[in-house]
Amino acid sequence: MADLPPAAEWMSVAQLAARVGVRPDTIRYYERAGLLPPATRTSGDHRRYGEAAIDRLHFIQGAQRLGLRLKDISTLLAVRDTGTCPCEPAEQLLRQRITEIDSELSRLQALRRDLVRMAEALPGGDCPDPDPGTWCPPGMRR
User: Fold this and answer.
1) pLDDT at 108
2) Which fold has domain 7-121?
3) How far is CA 57 from CA 50, 95, 106, 132, in A?
4) pLDDT, tens digit, for every residue of 78-108?
5) Terminal Cα-to-Cα distance of the chain (whole angstroms)
6) Where are the domains of the chain?
7) Cα–Cα distance for residue pair 5/9, rounded to 1 Å
């Protein structure tokens, strides 16, 4: 067990979660996934975190808002932990994410065109009742 900082400087999982705005389970998950270094433990095996955990969790949250996956965030954190600027790996990840978003936008635009075409092909306000067991009016079934 590592030496704990003075009691006024450490936080429990619940306290850290409240400060950052996540659930305690999220913090435990990030620790298991390697995004957070293992917490210092008390003699009763309770996790204790310092202020650095808040900064790290804010970094994770910011990266998630950009749409980065936890695997990508882990890569950035590893670079960040070396003390070097993570700008180059971050640029690659962000450009990759932009490409993914552009692809998804294209897919959604095609889906929208298909839905508009289907909606416009429906009969007007005098739509006949559907055949029993279907949603299609008589004569529209294929």
Assistant:
1) 96
2) Multidrug-efflux Transporter Regulator; Chain: A; Domain 2 (1.10.1660)
3) 12, 23, 33, 56
4) 888 887 776 777 888 888 889 999 999 999 9
5) 71
6) 7-121
7) 6
